[in-house]
Amino acid sequence: MSTAFSLAPLFRSSVGFDRFNDLFETALRNEPGSTYPPYNVEKHGDDQYRIVVAAAGFQEEDLELQVEKGVLTISGGKRDVNEGVTFLHQGIAQRAFKLSFRLADHIEIKAADLSNGLLSIDLLRVIPEEAKAKRIPINGAQKPVLQ
């Protein structure tokens, strides 16, 4: 009996992480009910990411984005139902939701847009100069002077 092992759950709620320890932690804490609404996490370059949430029927005033302590929270309030309507079939969910994404260090929200039922959130990793890796030259011909 062979068991397939998928790393997909590791990437569902993290953006910009390259360290597996943090991804494993997040996967272990992932709640099974966090699949509504459906969403994609996309990588568009070394430092560019996008989260796309299917927010069918929600308007801008129904949605809220908040970043606190490195966690991006996207929440949508329950929409008002028209009292005079009788649904013969109701396939569009009308429940409130809350999605949370842990952001890696130096990830900034650049823009958010709601178009055609899709909420797109653009993220960018902006690494300050003092945090960037620096190449150290090796002076093979010279002996270091220690005092």
Automatic annotation (TrEMBL):
Provenance organism: Pseudomonas moraviensis
UniProt domain SHSP: residue ranges: 30-141
A Pfam family per the record: HSP20
Keywords, comma-separated and alphabetical: Stress response
Record-given protein name: Heat-shock protein
Stretch forming the signal peptide: none
Family, as annotated: Belongs to the small heat shock protein (HSP20) family.
